[in-house]
Structures are given as structure tokens and as C-alpha cells.
Amino acid sequence: MGRPTLSETPTLWMHGASNGELHSARPLIERLRDARPELEITVTTNTVTGRDMVNSWGIPHVRAFCAPLDLRNWTSRFLKARQVIALISLENELWPNRITLAARAGMPVFLVAAKISKKSARVWKRLPALRREMFQSIALLAPQDRGSRNRFKALGVREDQFAPIIELKSLYTPVDMVPPPLPFPRDQIWLAASTHEGEEALIIQAHKERIAAGEHSLLLLAPRHPRRAADIRALIEGAGLSVAQRSQQETATPDTQVYLVDTMGEMPMWYRAAGATFVAGSFAAKGGHTPFEPAAYGTAILHGPDTSNFRRIYRDLDTAQADLPVQNASDLATAVTRALSDRSSYAQRATKVIQASTDLDPLVDRILERLPPANVD
Fold it and tell me: Which of 24, 105, 329, 371 might form a disulfide with 205, Cβ 3.0–4.6 angstroms?
């Protein structure tokens, strides 16, 4: 942790794990900043890249730091140095000292898009004293999904402490990143986003089937972990497909069949470039990644059978025929062709579904009701 500067004015402290949570929370930060302009907002994160991202926004009176360790002395010094009057913690950031010390000092504590897995709930169940104090310290808890709400309730969160369910990632707003020149138009480019081990073989097979069917297109293959790029390249070449690799400064040409985009922080560019996006983690039994980000860029969404991380929104997308669920490589090949031929219709339906699921007003109102005045000692 970097030593925080002293704050000259009362501060609202918001904590999120890293870039994804904080980027999604930016609309909440801006709404709170507009509603309470006399407050500073101190944002903390577990990563340097998250800190730098927030500071790069240039929002007046919003400052980001690396988070203090969840130790009593460190946390107490941070609370005093930044003149904290309230704490907002995002998603699954449940830090006992941070939450209880803030509450003991009379500060309201808000958990926003709070998420707790079955495994974590079992751990907390074995810690009754710590669990009781921590969860009784919470002023307001807006769960991310119904399963988390039920688990928090079973751990002792009272009904009057709950706010409506909010999916933080549904607040995602597009990043203004322009993709590099590519030798194919958008309706001939598809993306496999954040792939895990075991998924690439299915994706490559689907692309081969499309090529064999006479479809001239480019696959952007973006692995979740770029350190696996060498193995993935070997898979592509072993399948007889031509490949260019971005981390090696290779550019895609009209003859390139797969562009291995194995770099960090550039996914917004590939969403913009692709007419269709397969959201990975859904073939590999990882629960599937967020559909909110690709939807924000107007790319048609495809996904495999495991969408347990975002079950509610994928169910709504499926019901509205706003995405294309697939079970295997052949399904994927067929669905990509369908998605590319009708991208705008899928994108428009997905936008409507997501807009219907996103309402920040009730949460903001309930937080503002509980924020103390800025002249609190």
C-alpha cells in the first residue's frame, strides 16, 4: 500500500478489487459525486492498474490509492488520514477489520453488488462471532444475485438491511479504444473472448468448419491468460490455420485466419472490431464471463452451456432471443454465421434486455439517505 495523503475534507471511501469492478462502478461514483459535491471520494483497489485507471479518469475530488492491509492499525490510520465518513465495498470484498472498524466509528457501511459463494458462506458459518459483528455492522447490502442474497440472509443479515439486487457489471460503459486496422469488415470478424484451457480447441474446430463451408472470416482469439499464448498458437498451427500473434508485433493480413490477440487491457478494441463474440468460460465450466461488456459494444453474443456466474441475465437474454446459446463446436460454427449475418438485431435486443435490468436510482437514493453530513467530526 502507498501511504495515503491527508484529506482536507470529509471523504466517502469506496473499495473495489481491481479494474473490472471499478470501471463498472464509475457511474455510481459519478452519481454520488454529483449528489454530494462537498465530499471527496477516495477509491481503493488491490491492484496498481486499478488505482491508475481511476486516477486517469480525472474526476474532480476523486482520488485512488492501493488499499490498506486489513489490519486494525493500518485501517485505523487510513480512516483518520482520509477523514472517512462512510464506506462502500464492492462485490465480494468482505474485509472484517475494515467493515467493523468503520461501523464502530459510527460510519455507515454499504456492500454494493455483494456476492458470496457457497464455499465462502460455509467458511463464514464456521466463524460465528466474527460473522455476527461484521454483518450486523452493515447499513445496507445490495446483493448481486438471488443466491447471494439467500446466503447472506442465512448468515444473519436482516431483511431491513437489504437493498434491491444490483449487478454492478450491468453499469459498464464502453471505453473509447479504436481497434487497429484489420483486413476484414466487422461482419466477417468474430471474437472468442477470455478463453480458458480446453476451450480453444473447440473454438478452432468451429472456425475450421466455417472455413470449410466457404465462410471467409477472421477469428480474434483472446485468451484469459496470455502466458498460455505459445500453447494456443501451437494448437492453431496444428489445426492447419494461419495465425498472426499480436504480442509478437505480427499484423493480420487478408490471408490470416486467426489473430491471436494475447495482450492485456485491449479487449474493448476487439469487442468493437467483432460482429459476433463468443463469451468464454462457458465451455470450460468456469461459469461464463460477463455479457454486459460485449453488449455495450454492439457485438452479437454467443455463449456455451455454463453461465452460472450470470445466470439471471443470460436467462433473460436467452428468453428474448438476444443471444445465441451453443453446446459444441458445430453449434458454434453455425451460430457465428447466423450472428454475423444479423448482428444489429441481436445487439438491439441485448441492449433492451440489459437496460431493463439496470436501475441505479433506488440504490443511489438509499445510500444518500444514510450518508452523514460532511461536517461530522
Answer: 329
Taking every pair of C-alpha atoms in the chain, what is the biggest distance, in angstroms? Answer: 71
Separation CA 279–CA 52 (nearest Å): 27
Give the whole-angstrom CA distance, residue 194 versus residue 206. Answer: 17
Positions marked catalytic: 21
d(CA 129, CA 132): 5
Q: If you compute the radius of gyration of the chain from its CA atoms, what whole number of angstroms results?
A: 22
Which neighbouring-strand residues pair with 189?
218
Extract the C-alpha cell encoding 256: 490470416
Does pTM surpass 0.85? no
Which residue from 5, 13, 80 is spatially nearest to 45, judged by alpha carbons?
13
Q: What are phi and psi of 191, to 5 degrees?
A: -120, 135
Summarised one tens digit per residue, pLDDT across range 175-222 is 889 999 999 999 999 999 999 999 999 999 999 999 999 999 999 999
Q: Provide, rounded to the nearest whole percent, the portion of the chain with pLDDT above 70.
A: 98
| Cβ–Cβ < 8 Å for 262, 247 | yes
